Amino acid sequence: MVLIERLNYLGGNVSRFNNYFPKLCPPACGLEINYSRIRSNPRISYHTGASVESICGSDGDFRVKISVEPRLINNNCTSCGLCAEVCPEERPQKLGRKAGEKAAYINNGLAFPMKYCIDPLVCKREACGKCLEVCDYDAIQLNASPAEVELQVGKIIVATGWILYDAARIENYRYQEEPDVVTNLEFERMLAACTREKTKLTRPSDGKTPRRIAFVQCAGSRDVNHLPYCSAVCCSTSLKHALTLESEYPDIHAEIFYIDMRLSGRNEKLLKQAEGKERIALTKGKVGRIVQGEGEANLVLEVEDISKGFRREDAFDMVVLAMGLTPNHVAAGLKVNKYGFYLPEQRAGIIPAASCKRPMDVSSAVKDATACALKAMQR
Amino acid sequence: MGIIKPDIKFKRELGRLSGSQLNQCMQCGNCSAVCSLAPAERPFPGKEMVWSGWGLKEKLIGNVDIWLCHQCGDCSSYCPRDVKPADVISAIRHQTYLHYARPRFLGKLVSSPAWLPVAIAIPVVVIMAILSLAGTFKIPEGPVDYSAFFPHGLLNSTFSAITLFFYLLASFGIVRFWKDMKRLTPPGEAGMKKFPIARVLGEILSHSNFSGCGSQQLRKIAHMSLFFGFGLLILVTLYAIWATITHNYPLPFTNPFKIAGNVASLMIYSGLGIMVFQRLMNRSVFGKSSYSDWLLLAAIGLLTLSGTLVELARFGNWSVAYHLYFFHLVAVWFVIMYLPFTKMGHIFYRTTALLYARSIGRK
Amino acid sequence: MMSAEKKHMALAICTGCDIGNCIDADKLTDAVREAFDGISCISHKSLCSEAGLEELRKFTREKGVDRLGVAACSPRVKTAEFSMDGIYVDRINLREQLAWVMEPGEEDTQMCAEDQTRMVLAKLDTIKENTPYLPEQVYSDVLVVGGGIAGVSAALEGAAAGYRVHLVEKSDRLGGYAGRIYKTPYNEIDLSARTSEVMSHPGVEVHLETSIESISGEPGNFFVAIRNSDSATLKVGSVVTATGWKPYDPDKLSALGYASPRVKTLEEFEQSVQVEQPPDRVLFVLCAGSRDENHLSYCSSYCCGAALKQALYIREKNPGAEVYIVYRDIRTAGFQEEFYKLVQADDAIFMTKGVIKSVSDLGNEVEVVVGESLLDEQITLVADLVVLATGMVPNTTSDLKLQYRLGEGLPELEYEFSDSHFICFPYETRRTGVYAAGTVRAPMDMEMSQEDGAGAMMKAIQCIECVKRGEAVHPRAGDMSYPELYMERCTDCKRCTEECPFGSYDETDKGTPLPNPARCRRCGICVGSCPERIISFSDFSINSVSAMIKAVHVPDEFKEKPRVLVFVCENDAYPALDAAGVHRLRYSPFVRIIPVRCLGSVNKVWISDALSHGYDGILQIGCKPGDDYQCHFIHGSELTEQRGENLQETLETMMLEPERIQTRFVEITDHHEIQEIINDYVEELELIGPNPFKDM
């Protein structure tokens, strides 16, 4: 098994998540089990920073050319962290990213591989070279260039996952204009950063603790103007966020605005838990617009509370958009459905797995990937 | 509320008129949320969409909120299921004219192309009858003089009488409409205020309800042109009627009222032009234009156009002057006499609804 | 203590990554040499580098090392680098759990390093050679129980991968619930094609009208007694159970009018619509029993789609009919939203959100009062037929007739579904080699069930292959050690058989445990449970941990130098400790850490060993117990809590303060909490004072 990952660390999106629904448990717990299996299993190898250049051949005999972006730090790295200590360059501030994270960085304390890498967009290379001076292990390679690797494989499993729908395209939610309107993925990473750094959640615009946070469901999903399908995970995700806030922030009130609360199976439990909480409000009604208001709570939501038959123009400090999911297209030439997701049936030997086929949660992704592994064993 | 009996015929009629797949509504409330005119309590058009989905005619006809909508189209452009609430509301308004029309056939007459020949035949026959009775039903000789064809006194008296008759019929509908509004949207604890006539008049004159999103501006201008052009024409007409009694008629072309009349025509042309252009070019915002939309635009257009031509014909002594004049009279009939039963009825219904809404404190 | 003739033990110290700055490696070497006679030591400034490894390999070769302690970074990094053929390597975590968290150059830090190193070496000294558990015969066939959509899928996919499958179905036909339905309009599953394919597939042996009499044995060697016209025994390596679901008992839904003949369930209607024309007005009640604390508190997932589908049947069979659907939330997740829209394209299907207040049969029609509707606060709808979308209840797994001490079925979790760790590791059950697929493990629709069959089959195959190699399956995949019992001293107390979360132990009539190593997940809970201390792994035993405990030099004087023994669960707590190191979170140098397979594997004797050895306190850090447990061995943490109560009594009889032993549960991301836990505990201990047994 050769694992090709575009990013510098394994685990994908969930490796930067704060917790999973419905248990509200940390993703690192399950990831660690899998990482430890990869660590000790000689039958699995992996490439990070790698992308597929071309696929030749056919079922049973594929030749895959991959291009591997250098991490600028090689496998000698012991993760001692000296390079980051002396590194003078900071990566741009991003929601959920550690403030002042250096160009030489590591994802988090449980990252896999447990090795540093250097952000090539920020690093000044030889012009600075401070890390070169301190590294005792010849691990820094500032001039490394992309490597071409050719693999011979019998089957190809495509598990390229999902990306969020572009929030800026929902103009009436003012994502681009308002720093305190964030996507649920950004919010997830903000919460993860709070757990990791043991800091408190603050809102991006002024660093103050938000008091009222609104969750806008179906931001993009179930909307003929955007994504006509349901993204399947966002209701559970927002409930998870609200419950996390409820248990960790006694001053924050969360309100979720939804059309239909879609929780399948045992995820229903999230709703049961949320319904009993004083600081969580659940309001049926799609948010129409977010407009700028006065004062501190300056995000005014226009929404009809349809159960009460009341139209509200209500001010919040922060808004989390429960964005729809779209397929992450990195493998060209695969057959897609009308929404751009990969079809389950491709040419022989190529097997798409998990959320690049349809929006799904972690549990479904794992189960689908397991099924796809079996398909890869079939002749 | 008691037993709900879904009226699938009414539902389908609304769907047909509006061109909306209204059953696709998923009851999300987005339409009410984006509406800048929706009141906080029981906002529209969300609830109307739900009722429409079940064909609840009794809740929709006589519903005051239908008239608070000024058709900006925001609800339609943001609708996640593309069910065009604005068009559905518009269709309900159309059903309202039909519902309160007395005699009923007058409502039907102007609501379907099938009945158009009859709708035309009625004024033609009536005018011919009047002219035959008056003995003037022939093309007069000499320079164009319309009074030789249709004496002014006779024209004024017969047309006024017929108009009043039609409007009297309509007023029964308006009274029933008022009662229905009161039943469906009873006044709150504060009760009814005195008629806020001044306020409603102010709203109508200022077109304040048209304020909202950008796409509105042009509509506001168009409607204002039409509204004030029409108003001016009515003033000019009233003056003309008075003039036929007291002055020497026709008026010279330099008469300020005559000039005002022509200015009014220009206003109507420009307003109509914008409206037609927008309906044709901007379907995503305006949705499907129905027969009654086009009938109204055509009638106003032809009325104004024939009026202008009649004037020119007199000036130029055209041989077709009297034919044009006859045509003009038919157009007058369409716009003025049929007014309570066509989309023009909104002048009555919307004014009444606004009066009711403001008197019970509905925004 | 040492027997140098047979084996040679060595220590390699890395002084890179701050270790060399933090401690004196020479002093450490001296201390080790003093404790372990004849031990070979090597030190390098960068042991994991190519040069370092080269030197290390040369050193081990020359010295004939068979057991090596590597005092460097955490075993969670550089794993491949420090794996050496023929050498048992253990790691002394002097980096993440020492150099990065303790004051450099301090005496206490140095003492900690010396203790931790001696502990690991003491352990290495006790370990025995591991003989992997390799049964003579490992069967590669897979048993699939249940011929529904998940079972059929499992059988076909398994056979396609070259494994022989026995598909056992109770009834006289395949297809299960899905086989009885009228149409599947929104997913393109051609069930009849799948069932005929499975019937004729050379790799699948279908046993219809067959029940399971018993399943005994262990993964790789399950013996399945089946009975149809006559009896037979199948020999299989693993089991996929796909026994499906049944509708929730509608008799419990009298509040929704089920007693009336004009009220049917989804299943009843699915059958009746195939033989009779539906009436003119049909009303669907969604969530009939589901999402209801008094009935099924979960969402049954399939019913929204099924009801929408049936609405189309009605319209197709009776074009004049009207359909009313009363729902709480329409749950057509993902692309099923398309189907929702397709149904809505029919304008004779009327939908409203609402809560059913009453259903009354008026003799010729049914009156349904609905509250909280958007049509009005309370409305009354009249219909000729009401269809209740009843929920999904998993079938019992006791039909598996497992001949296990702990019961015939799979342990059922919340809501009676029988999987465990359903987020990260679906299909896992608490019976090794038995994997649940389809609606028996979670509510799902047909498409999901089909995928589920394939996934569970993958796990079943993986299990067989692991057994063939003598390896454990999830979560300690690849572990070759397994528990061995010194039966002579067994008192038949049954603790091990009761406490094993996976039912590894069978029992004789007398109560003597009969181990089934291939069922074992290697958690070591039995090691912790055994009062006679007769259960041990080759590298994890009463002796090995006792040796570690005793390898610590406990200073006679307490004054500011208490010693705290910390048992740390390897799964979540240990990585969290490492992360504390990565974040350079300082904690007390008085802790001495022993990683354990699970907190449940901590034996009481170690506690008393520690107390009598002079430790002032014992801290146990493990994974979260409870409903949303993260303990990878299900109830290891819970057992620790239970055993803790007994321990407290023991402490009291020893006249020791109960606070000396404390247990904490953390999540893997709780590195900040771990720092607090350790420091707070050490502080508390300083208030309690020294262990009075210290000088004895």
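qc> The mean pLDDT of chain B is 90.
qc> done
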